Amino acid sequence: xxxxxxxxxxxxLAEFERNGRSLPAFRDLRKKAISRFGSLGFPTGxxxxxxxxxxxxxxxxxxxxxxxxxxxxxxAGLSKGPLKACQIAFVDGRYAPAFSSLDLPPxxxxxxxxxxxxxDPKRVEPWLARQASFDLSPxxxxxxxxxxxxxxxxxxxxxxxxxxxxxxxxSSLHGEAYVTHPRILLVLEENASATVVxxxxxxxxxxxxxxxxxxxxxxxxxxxxxxxxxxxxQEAFHLETLQVVQGRGAGFTHHSISLGGRxxxxxxxxVLAGEGAECSLLGLYEVAHDQQVDHHTTIDHxxxxxxxxxxxxxxxxxxSRGVFDGRIVVRPDxxxxxxxxxxxxxxxxxxxxxxxxxxxxxxANDVKCKHGATIGQLDEAMLFYMxxxxxxxxxxxxxxxxxxxxxxIDTVKAPAVRSQIGGCLGLLVGGA
Amino acid sequence: xxxxxxxxxxxxxxPVLKGLALTVAAGQVHAVMGPNGSGKSxxxxxxxxxxxxxxxxGEVLYRGKDLxxxxxxxxxxxGVFLAFQYPVEIPGVGNxxxxxxxxNAIRKHRGQPELDAHDxxxxxxxxxxxVEMTEALLxxxxxxxxxxGEKKRxxxxxxxxxxxxxxxxxxxxxxxxxxxxxxxxxxxxxxRSPDRAMLVITHYQRLLDYIVPDRxxxxxxxxxxxxxxxxxALEVEEKGYATVKS
Lengths: 432, 246
Description:
The structure holds two protein chains of two kinds. Chain A is of the alpha/beta class. Chain A has helices at 3-19, 27-40, 56-60, 113-119, 138-146, 380-387, 393-409, 415-424, and strands at 64-65, 87-91, 94-95, 109-112, 150-155, 165-170, 178-180, 183-188, 193-201, 208-218, 223-231, 237-246, 251-258, 263-272, 278-287, 292-301, 307-316, 321-330, 338-347, 353-362, 368-376. Chain A is globular, with a radius of gyration of 21 Å. Chain B is α/β, with parallel strands linked by helices. Chain B has a single domain, classed as 3-Layer(aba) Sandwich (Rossmann fold), CATH 3.40.50.300. In chain B, 37% of the residues lie in helices and 29% in strands. Chain B has a six-stranded mixed beta sheet with strand order 6-9-10-3-11-12, with helices on both faces. Chain B has a four-stranded antiparallel beta sheet with strand order 2-1-4-5. Chain B is globular. Chain A binds chain B through residues 379-382, 384-393, 395-396, 399-400, 402-404, 406-407, and chain B through 48-51, 71-73, 75-77, 81-82, 84, 87-88, 90-93, 98-99, 101-103, 105-106, 109, 141, 158, 162.
């Protein structure tokens, strides 16, 4: 590692030294986390999990902690999304009550994590930082050391949320490169169910680093659909670690829709800790220019009769890069596991590149596991057929990209989110 | 309407058309017949502007303008339509949505207002009835899982909706049973009009029992070997291509 990168690590250590004491609650945990970050440092290409993810730029950029002085007026347009009825918003990582409006059934909580950490940290203590380990992840360590705000959702036993909850993370445009460490905790008790949409939005040209960690705890029979729509600035770095623990018969569906970011990386993990749990990890990424988007998934089948399905589809143009790294672990106890994994990519240019790698670690003998990956181009015969009917070349490409993406988009339950995703597709790549 | 002069073209680098000449006036239906490998499909693809087919000599005038200078979509917008011999399946793109996109692209080109989903559906249902296309087929992805006959009927439906000035039918009869052929022919015949021309490319005479041509041309080794009235098709049927000489 170069001296310069080591210095950048010191930048974060010094920041903690200076201001760590002013961060609310979990003092010992924070100290452990920053010390772990200190010994791990920024990942290098020598580590297998980071072989295709170059963090040099990320490590080199002197990101400052977000100041929280952004003028919220610049988001007036952005925040009027179709989901604003039940929305909690954050600007540069801090709770923004002006864009939040919550109408929830009795007992359900959607709160700013900062308020919880300040007033009643015991409320989140049973779950927070107990799912996402920072032992091997420098970025989770960094988040844990600096976590300050984010969202806390709690759905009590047997309650089904009638409408999606929207977690809106807005990044502002200001002179300095800055970093935020949003932390999200989703807790669903037994047989509770919820749909959560997580939007990440940033203005063009904004250079910032979003270092998010999401933890979700699903009690027995709970159901969670979590849809992430990432539309960060083209200059932004976006890292998110998601760690889920599923109880018996719990169902978890995740969508990762990645459209923005210079570098965006999703480390997604779920432990099927109870018998008969179901996990679907679905993803759609569309990138161009010099963008890179990563999905590193780990599905840990710990108990029998678990089902997991992974489908990641990518559209890559320009010199963009995609990485899919799908690990499936089937523990000795997890008999009758059924796991399916697939990664399909459309490359629209000669320079675009995809690295795809399945990793199956199977320690039980009565399981079904299938994986596959494809890389292809837009079909010339289909394009010609459409053009021969008067549809322009750009529009024909857009229609085919939509057709490719529809397999993922159609699985998103909320119609408003489906149409929002549809509207964003094909704008960057393959256009006329 | 269509004037093809001394057309030489290659398919995948191989010379196929070798000086083809053909003129189709508005209001007329011409049939181009020929054995396998004579250049029938190459002619259809050259007229539609498919990649991989290169014009090396000669010219094609459509309404007096150089057709070859136009992109495939502009040819369609100017009123040229090719009914494909092998229509492609396009999973994920709804048939009705696809056809509305095409219809509106052409309207826009003509400076006409676009039709919304509701009004278009009315028009589509009206045309679909003519070729006995069910609602289910209209809502399915383009040609996906369609039978051979359904695909060909879908081609004719597109033609009915887009109302081209020049329609080229490339072996539309291949793979059709008699009932399907009758339906297809009914659709095609409903479009016959004094300001429209049609080029019916076929291997067999039987389609011409239903779509009766004004002129018949025999294509052989890349040139029109002989032309005549509709009775020429019957002669081919009787004697085969080998013995029909100019």
